[in-house]
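User: What would this chain look like folded?
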Amino acid sequence: MTSPARRLIRVAPAIAASALIAGAVFATPFGAAATTPPPTPSTSVPTPAPTTATDDSSTPVALSLAAAGTGVVAPGADLTVTVEVTGPSSGGTISLALDDSALRSSSSLISWLDGGEAGSLVTVATAPAPTGGGTVSITVPAAQLPGGLGGAHGLQATLDGAGSAAVSARGTVVVDDGISSRADVTVIAPITSVASATGLIQPAALEAFTNDTGVLTRELDSVIGRPVTIAVDPRIIVSIRALGSTAPESAVAWLQRLESASNPVIPLSYGDSDLSGERQAGATSALQPTSFDYALDPADFTDVDPLIEPTATPTSDSPTPSASPTPAAPSVPTLEQLTDWDYASTTIAWPRAGSVTAADLPFFAASGYSASIIDSQQLTPASGDAGEALQAVATTGEQTVLAADHAVSQAVQDAVAASTDTSRGQAVGELSAALALAAETGGGTPENPTPVLAVLDRAAMNLNSIDQVVSTVQALPWSAPGSLSELLQITPTQTVSLVDAPQPDERVTRIANLLLGGQQIDSYSSVLSNPQLLSGRHRADLLTLLSNAWVANEGGWSVATDAFNEETATTLRSVQIVEGSDINLLSSSAPLPLTISNELPYPVSVIVHVTASNGRLLIDQNDVGVVVEANSRKSAQIPVTAVANGSVVLSFQLTSATGVLIANPSPVAVNVSADWETWGTVIFVVALVLLFGGGLARNILRRRKERRAAPDAAVAPPAPETAAAPEVTS
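Assistant: Here's the prediction, encoded as structure tokens.
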């Protein structure tokens, strides 16, 4: 487990990139589409629009085209089309052709836009192309249009003679010959953040994302108060709430705006994790966050957080309050408080388009999702009738699916992602055609309109053009905004089949490795008194790595998952018995020393289990409990008794209190020499006896010698007396 500082260093590049994205991507708001006065009906000469030429010869020439307005004309009216040339064009001629055969279904529209065969293309106008790129407006008088036009038709612009191969672009025009069908369109737009490898968005990134020009601010500004359902990543909400009083002011204000929005709000999976990828990699249910205790500081929740409902405190029956109430100790919010929101529905699974198999749907249902949003290109009516229209709400097996109309969704996506007025107008024209076909094939009437579901791609972090999308839906005579609640109340009457679109094997294998590491961490964390401090962090980080936001950056995701797997392996080696050398046991009983290291930032409780290879050594206590503080080592004493001399191999196991194996170090050889203690004692006693005995004998002999010498001294003659000196007198 890495320290918070090391983790911040690891995600610093992602945060920096996020800040750049927040400040730079799509900073210019959408403006109204440029229009050019059409020529008189008697001429088809184009009027070039002034543009800035590009000098980059490596940029390919490309075209886009848009019929005037929302791509709708009345019968007998002139057709005005704007064609935009981008890249180093050297002039040439633009030919405008119209397919006089009407498109009949959403699938035929998709085929046309993807380059499929046309019914009958008729060239209706030509114009000189602007040199160096630019726009040109072509007006086709009604008299030059094929007769009998009605409904949606394909348009094609082709640039020839520009010094390279011919370049074409396709669009649509709807001839409103009295279309009476109606469709109600429910639009769902995701609000997500950039790809990351941390379970919570860091404070600096939150501040960048929610400032006046931040990506989350722009996303919310685009959809709030409009007839659009918001699908929000709960990670954004939790990341702000988990900071308590330290959350950036801009982030708190952003969350309050979302809370007060009139839009219906539904949750994505946490981190917008890849639901179908989880199932295909072997998960038994959709992963959910388990705890954020690791990120919560009680000091940040000393004041009541207005974004989190405090737990009610029971009051006394006595009407007299305490004179000096004791303030309650600060407590951190629970998982339920952090994730709680007033969602319109919490039972809609939204897997990434084109990534689902039929086996995924029961998995979603078992995970608590009662309906799944599936791209219509993966669904076909079970009846096999090619002419049967696909309904927005249907069933496959026992699961309910919400069919996202691919043509409508793609047109909406193209409109919000467009970078020029012409390309945006082209997408709006395609949206008009797609809605006309959806209304017609669905048989909707003004009294009973056909429900249509349109979803935006998760990568759509610039939603500025959503206003034009909504305005188009509202302005078209055959469509109107629909509501999510009405869509969810529909009882499905159509059965559909799902065409499997499994994810790439390499991606599934990587996800499986991530899931395996998560299972190992969940078990390993039982060494903590609060396992969620370890497993909660790992689960949140794992869900973020499974985010659909990573799909567009497979190389970066590979690097991030490799680093995460290595970090997981390091964590699983954090608590170990320190390897020691062989032991010489020279006594019949003694405690064997054992050192345990803990590199986790939390204290751990482990049990040391010891077994001997033979009966020469008895383990007096096979299981010894040890508590090791964070980032430290501690010695344990294993009491043993020697029964016989010889070699014994001790095997150790380190487990948690719940019996999960934490470490299994190499066995240790013990050379038992218990007799050495006995013989050593005997030798010591003998030496002691000899020492004291020798001293005692020497004393006895000395005393005897003294006693024998005593009588001889008694019979010896006395010594002669010395004569006194004569006394001298004066």
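The CA atoms of residues 621 and 639 lie 6 Å apart. If you want, I can go into more detail on any region.
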